[in-house]
Specification:
Layout (H helix, E strand, L loop, with lengths): L2 H5 L3 H22 L3 H4 L5 H19 L13 H19 L1 H7 L7 H39 L14 H10 L7 H22 L2 H13 L5 H17 L2 H18 L4 H15 L8 H10 L3 H29 L13 H24 L6 H15 L7 H34 L6 H8 L4 H18 L2 H11 L1 H6 L4 H13 L9 H10 L3 H11 L2 H11 L9 H23 L1 E2 L3 E2 L7 H16 L10 H25 L3
Antiparallel strand pairs: 1-2
């Protein structure tokens, strides 16, 4: 839910959101902590998910207006009608859940169930439109109707045609649609981490991480831009939203960058790239990571661990580019007197690091990813209440609950809509055949299929939320790549990374446009700078999908060699992109020679970082010779020219 929409809420709406969040959190705790063993009442999965929908779907219609951004007070009667209808539909399925399972309602149901299913389907579509906007609504609407005409399409795309009544009951009663993986991931994993992320921000965690970043890096060369990387990485990990991250850290980091000499456009580009990478940073990644854990049927901690090296490589690439840019343009850091003190910052915010460490311990060592965020949130709030300078008052608790309710509502609508896509593909039989169709189109070539997947992920990422784009490709593309012999974790992470690229790539570049509004720069020029700065993220997914050791999927030796090659390659690529490399100095001073030098560094870095893989028709020895020869020639040429060039 946008800041504008939140500002337009009336007090009654805020109370409803807060109550919805409280009931949702209570129900999640009841189910996830298995408290039913003590009360004697254990919910079926379908009952639990429909109970969550009964609480959160009504808040979508009450909190998000029919026309996005338009203020209507009080809430109009038709929104109340939709809210009540959505709640009653969900309550009907809760009450009849046992009968639905016993009698197989997803395939045959009484006529009254058909009518209620059609109404629930329509309400889910409207909730999706309000939460995700018209682009995702159109995609979800057409996809959800796909079973009705699947049998009339050409053979390559044809499925099983299904009457509208059967499609409706399948959408509402099967484990593949509204009750499918998106809703299951939200119900079992996402709620706790959303609570933790909002609590961390509301208690001052964002300010602490920004202050810590300034204290550690503010005075070094190009310090404020490096601060942006550090703070945005941590903040993005908490919020899971690129735009929210930009609007939270940008007002502090962008003016600081301007103060030491960075242009408005470059400062906004740095903030865009850092905020985009933050969503990929463990341990609290975006909602997509939780869906991925459910798809792969592995602990979320394994996803977070696998994501650590790629995200670190991305931020390392940003860091080196900023350092080289600052060196080439002789940009200093901020005066020490203007920066917070490390000791004082740690005294005021040590508990944030402690709670983060506690969360990581529960995720990676205790393997308790479902309950870990609830314990971490409780610990954070208890410590916060014991500290006088940050202790919450009653209004703070109400604001916290309201923020949770707003985020729950938005994600509920999106997850329900994306579930409809999965259900449509499943009931039409396409989810099992589309992978073979893609393999046929690609001619069985995995590299061609990877490129097709990258482009499709990017295109879907333009018009759809990352989670929606990921789920669609996890159904359609991932099985084809996995059946071709690729690592499942690497394939799913590849899809996630490419879906994020629309935030920094023109012409859409939503993250860049948000940063440009903060910096007062040209949105299109900012997006072009963001694309250059973040260009390493275009290569990293290919690196780890072809070399799963970068996802810690391999032996210790394989992992160390892969990381070392990737780090070396990123340094060279960054040097070529920014026109500077230590020992070679400013390459732009070499006249026309600087273009061959920069190109040599980029290509040599790519050859060095490129993994050896049977899908690449170049042997490991040839790759090494090419990379070593090109790098050595480029460095030698640069050093000779620097030594003999006139002063």
């Amino acid at each position: 839910m946008s800041e504008e929409q939140q500002d337009l809420r009336n007090p009654l709406t805020g109370k409803i959101l807060a109550i919805g969040a409280l009931l949702t959190a209570t129900l999640a705790i009841y189910q996830i902590f298995n408290l039913g063993t003590y009360t004697g009442f254990t919910m079926l999965t379908s009952q639990y998910i429909y109970a969550l929908l009964a609480m959160m779907l009504p808040t979508v219609f009450i909190a998000i207006p029919l026309a996005r951004g338009r203020r209507i007070e009080p809430t109009p009667w038709y929104d109340w009608l939709l809210a009540v209808a959505s709640s009653l539909c969900c309550i009907f399925f809760i009450i009849n859940s046992n009968e639905a399972v016993d009698e197989g309602w997803e395939y045959a149901a009484p006529q009254n169930v058909v009518y209620i299913s059609l109404l629930t389907w329509a309400l889910a579509l409207e909730a999706t439109r309000r939460c995700g906007g018209w682009p995702i609504f159109i995609v979800v609407f057409l996809a959800s109707l796909f079973p009705l005409f699947a049998g009339y399409l050409p053979d390559s795309f044809a499925g099983i045609s299904t009457p509208i009544d059967l499609a409706a009951i399948y959408h509402t009663n099967s484990d593949e649609s509204l009750l499918g993986i998106p809703s299951q991931a939200f119900a079992n994993l996402v709620i706790g981490f959303l609570l933790f992320g909002i609590a961390l921000q509301r208690t001052g965690g964002g300010k602490f991480f920004i202050d810590l970043a300034f204290a550690l890096l503010g005075k070094v060369r190009g310090g404020p831009a490096k601060v942006s990387i550090f703070s945005s990485g941590l903040m993005g990990s908490m919020s899971g939203s690129v735009v929210t991250n930009v609007l939270t850290t940008g007002p502090l980091s962008i003016p600081a960058m301007r103060k030491v000499g960075f242009s408005k456009t470059y400062a906004a580009g740095v903030e865009t790239c850092a905020s985009t990478g933050g969503v990929l940073m463990p341990p609290v990644m975006g909602a997509t990571a939780f869906v991925m854990a459910t798809f792969l049927d592995i602990p979320y901690g394994d996803i977070a661990l696998a994501a650590a090296i790629p995200s670190a490589l991305y931020f390392f690439g940003l860091f080196t580019q900023i350092d080289f840019y600052a060196a080439r343009n002789r940009l200093a850091g901020l005066p020490a007197i203007d920066l917070p003190k490390i000791k004082q910052t740690m005294i005021e915010g040590w508990h944030y690091i402690f709670v983060f460490a506690f969360l990581i311990w529960m995720l990676l060592f205790m393997k308790q990813e479902a309950i870990a965020p609830f314990y971490a949130t409780a610990l954070l709030l208890v410590i916060n209440q014991l500290r006088k300078h940050s202790r919450w008052k009653w209004q703070d608790f109400k604001d916290f609950a309201e923020s949770c309710g707003a985020l729950f509502a938005e994600l509920t609508g999106l997850m329900a809509g994306v579930g409809l896509i999965m259900g449509a593909l499943a009931v039409s039989g396409m989810s099992g055949t589309i992978a073979n169709d893609l393999l046929f189109i690609a001619g069985g070539d995995m590299l061609v299929l990877l490129i097709m997947g990258a482009l499709t992920s990017f295109i879907l990422g333009i018009g759809m939320p990352v989670t929606a784009a990921y789920i669609f490709l996890a159904i359609a593309l991932a099985p084809a790549l996995i059946n071709g012999g690729m690592n499942p974790m690497a394939v799913h992470m590849f899809i996630l990374y490419w879906g994020m690229l629309s935030f920094i790539t023109p012409p859409v570049a939503i993250g860049a446009f948000a940063a440009a509004s903060v910096a007062g720069s040209s949105p299109m020029r900012t997006s072009l700078v963001s694309m250059q700065m973040g260009s390493i993220i275009y290569f990293i997914p290919f690196f780890f999908v072809l070399e799963p050791a970068l996802l810690l999927q391999g032996t210790a030796t394989e992992i160390i060699i892969a990381i070392a090659c990737a780090v070396g390659g990123i340094v060279l690529i960054s040097g070529g992109l920014q026109g500077y490399l230590p020992k070679l100095g400013d390459l732009t001073e070499r006249g026309l020679l600087h273009w061959p030098l920069r190109l040599g560094l980029i290509v040599g870095g790519l050859f060095l970082a490129m993994p050896h893989n049977p899908y690449i028709l170049i042997s490991e020895q040839t790759l090494f010779i090419l990379s070593f020869g090109l790098i050595a020639l480029t460095l030698a040429l640069g050093l000779v020219h620097r030594r003999w060039a006139p002063a």
